[in-house]
Amino acid sequence: MSGAADFAKQVEALRPQLLRFARSQLRNDAWAEDAVSETLLAALEKPASFAGRSQLKTWLVAVLKHKVVDQLRRHTREATLLTTDDGEDLDESLFESHGGHWREAPADWGNPEASFGQRQFFEVLEACMDHLPPAQGRVFMMREWLELGTDEICKELQITATNLWVLLHRARLRLRECLQQRWFNTHTTKPA
Amino acid sequence: MKIRRTCRDVTRLVFESQDRPLKPLETLSLRLHWLACSGCLRFRRQQQLMQQAMGRWRQYRDQG
Predict the structure, then answer these.
(1) Does residue A181 register a pLDDT over 90?
(2) What is the ipTM metric for this complex?
(3) Which residue, among B54, B58, B59, B63, would best test binding to A if mutated, counting the most A CBs under 10 Å from its CB?
(4) Distance between CA A26 and CA A24 in Å, rounded?
(5) Tell me, what CATH number does A124's domain have?
(6) Can you list the residues of chain B whose pLDDT is less than 50?
(7) N or C: which end of chain A has fewer CB within 10 A?
């Protein structure tokens, strides 16, 4: 097989994964398609510059992040609609309404650092992120995956810093709850 | 600004500390709360672990 055909194959093979990343961030199939297509087009411009598949993937993901931000910019108005609050406040179920104490004290998660490298853990983590309500998921991914600053996120989505903190707070509480149920309740992480 | 905080309030501040530098009085009120509240101390540990996990996940997703 020629080098060019081989390269085309590699690019194509990585497409589903990139689409999944873009969808989880943008929550819109058409925008995700656009972002991924633009990314792959950029790679086709310079087939000679990649030494191997892993280098190609690293490069593609880096470019994809920019393309995702471009899409967010282009669709700011539609995106803003999503940031109206979604999902109820976990605070109510976690804390006593009077006095604000924990209803049930947080569990000891032990020393799970080693398990953080396991594929199984990443799958649970990604499933938990996918289950966040759309607005919470969007801002959480902008912060954690795109690593945008809070100012930038507020500007892109035209929301206030307070709105953003509320959304992030809810997303993180939900993620914590999900990890508790789907990982820490079933995995022993105490040191041997 | 008050120095005594509820667990609910402390939880919010702990998460916010990932996004903005806390004011000295906020930090002080957290420290004082943790001295007396083992639940919030455990929560802080959970928050630190989650942050670590997200860092590992970024690596896994972007290069793995």
Answers:
(1) yes
(2) 0.93
(3) B54
(4) 6
(5) 1.10.10.10
(6) none
(7) C
The DSSP symbol for A107 reads P
- The answer to whether A61 and B62 are in contact (CB under 8 A) is yes
Band (pLDDT 50/70/90 cuts) for residue A179 is very high
Q: Which residue in B has a C-alpha nearest to residue A116's C-alpha? A: B53
The reply to whether A104 and A27 lie within a common domain is no
A90: Cβ contacts below 8 Å, ≥ 6 apart: A170, A173, A174, A177
Copy the structure tokens of residue A76.
């700011």
Query: Where does a domain end: A53, A74, A95?
Result: A74
Does the residue B59 lie in any domain?
yes
Number of folded domains that form chain B: 1
The domain total for chain A is: 2
Question: Domain range holding A50?
Answer: 3-74
Q: How far is A100 from chain B (nearest CA, A)?
A: 5
- Sorted by sequence, the CB contacts under 8 Å of residue A3 that are 6+ apart come out as A47
- Taking the complete model, does pTM exceed 0.90, yes or no? no
Question: For residue B7, which amino acid is it?
Answer: C
The domain boundary residue, chosen from A74, A99, A133: A74
**Residue A20 or A50, more confident:** A20
Both A59 and A35 in one domain: the answer is yes
Asked if A62 reaches chain B (Cβ–Cβ under 8 Å), the answer is yes
Let me know if residue B1 belongs to a domain.
Answer: no
Rounded distance between C-alpha atoms, residue A150 and residue B9, angstroms? 20
Contact B13, B40 (CB under 8 A): no
C-alpha distance from B38 to closest chain A C-alpha (Å): 8
